[in-house]
Every structure is written in structure tokens, then in C-alpha cells.
Amino acid sequence: MEVIVLLGPDDVARVAADVVAGVVRRRPGAVLGLATGSSPVGVYAELARRVAAGELDLSGVSGFALDEYVGLPAGHPESYAAVLARDVTGPLGLDPARVHVPDGRAADLEAAAEDYEQAIAAAGGVDVQLLGIGANGHIGFNEPTSSFGSRTRLKTLAPRTRADNARFFASPDEVPMHCLTQGLGTILGARRLLLVAQGSAKAEAVAAAVEGPLTSMCPASALQLHPRATVVVDEAAAVRLTLLDHYRQVYAHKPAWQRP
Ligand code: GLP
Question: What are the site positions for Part of the allosteric site (predicted)?
Fold first, then answer.
């Protein structure tokens, strides 16, 4: 995979936004895979800035969220549907009718998961999937031991993920126990993967994903199976990578025609 190591979070946001913008420039009706969590916040902010400046038009794209909590009441501010509507759809000028989130309130969650897979397929698949990474190596909500072949389905959140996400809720008990998440197989079906990570808390997970063995104990190691995966990290998130100099050299000498 391509590993790009940059000075700080602002550089990560800029370079990741370049990739997304490049995809949309080539295909104005592109399908974007949308991640939530704090990792992509800077990328969205940079895209929103370019949209506001008239440099980029995202009004023709479709979006598919990676995951959604199960059982939060409609309109709960921390449901990923609400987070995306507030922080992504509006600021990026996306068409709300074309932004899709798994239905975590469905009476039949299995059917909702299947419907979601069908909706992604009907849209022609995801052109570029933006990803964060959990401290335990999860992507989407695919916790350790998730199958590399998994599709959208119900998952139980790992205690560490619930603890990590408790900061968004009034109390740790409020963090849902379950979620619907695209599977690793679903994610690998995207034509391009773009994982961003910042900060030392992610250093171990990034190293395991990029340089560790292919193992469901680190779900993000599934990126090693993808023919077009790019990992953009800042210095702090890169400290555990052993081939740091190699990644820097590759990026410094990246041919112009390969750049977004
Ligand atoms: C969350 C999300 C993931 C996200 C990850 C890391 O719970 N479900 O999509 O990438 O965990 O979160 P953060 O970016 O806030 O560190």
C-alpha cells in the first residue's frame, strides 16, 4: 500500500482532501465512502473550505456511511446519521437525498444490512472510501476477529471502542452496545481506500495495519489485500513504522502523473 507520512494533522487533511477532490474531478457523480469519528474531521473541513471557495463542487456525489449505532433514538445528536448531516452533508454541499446511512433503528436489522449492501451495489460501488482507524485496529466498526469476507451486519462493540467513544455521550453507559457496519469485504470492494490517522494513540494500530501480519486481530490489516490503498498519517501516528525512511523516499519521488 501507499504510505504517506506528513508533518501534522493539517497536512494529512490537505493531502487526503486532494485525493477525494481528484476522484470527484474525474467523476463528478462519484460515490464517496464516508467515515465518522475524529480522524476525518480535518479532511471534511478542508473539503468544505474548497467548496466554499468555489474550487470544488460535491453536489453531484453520493455518500455511504461506514456504520451506525443500533438503538439510538431518532435524531440523537451522536447517531452517525445526525453527525454526517451536521458535519458533512451540509458543509460539503452534498445532496441529502444521496447520503446513505445504515438504518440502526430498523425492526429487522438483518434486512436493513442487506438493503444497505444492495444500495451500495445499485450506486455502482464506492469510488473512494475514507477510513479512520480505531486504537484496536478497527475500521468502520469491524472489531478484532472480524472476517475479511464480512458484509454489512450487526456487530457488538468492543469494550475499548465503547470506552473510546464515551467522550461523545453523557455517560459511558449511554454508548450503544451494537452497531451496523459495512464488513471488511464490503470495504475492500471500494475502488480506492484512503485511511487517515493522526496522533500517537494510533501509532501502534497504524504499524500493525501497514507492517504487521494480515490478521483479523487487526482488521485494518485487510488494507494489505487491496490493490489501491493509501494511508496518510502524521509524524506522531507514524512513529512505530519501521520503514519510515522508505515511505518518505517513495513519496518524495512520486511521479507527477501518479499524484491527485
Ligand atoms: C469509530 C468509528 C470508526 C472510526 C474509529 C476511530 O468508532 N466507527 O469509523 O474510524 O472509531 O475513531 P476516531 O477517528 O474518533 O479516533
Answer: 146, 153, 155-156
Amino acid of residue 18: D
Integer CA distances (angstroms), 2 to 66, 95, 152, in order: 22, 31, 26
**How remote is the CA of residue 201 from the centroid of ligand 1, in Å?**
12
Return d(Cα 184, Cα 154) in angstroms, integer. Answer: 13
Output the ligand 1 site: residues, CB below 6 A: 35-39, 66-67, 132-134, 140-141, 161, 165
Confidence tier at 198 by pLDDT (50, 70, 90) = very high
> What is the residue range of 114's domain?
2-258
Active-site positions read: 67, 136, 138, 143
| Chain segment 107-151, per-residue pLDDT in tens | 999 999 999 999 999 999 999 999 999 999 999 999 999 999 999
pLDDT in tens, 88-118: 999 999 999 999 999 999 999 999 999 999 9
When divided into structural domains, the chain yields a total of: 1
What's the pTM? 0.96
CATH number at residue 126: 3.40.50.1360
Adjacent-strand bridge partners of 155: 179
Ligand 1 mean position, distance from CA 5 (Å): 20
Give distance in angstroms: CA of 126 to centre of ligand 1: 19
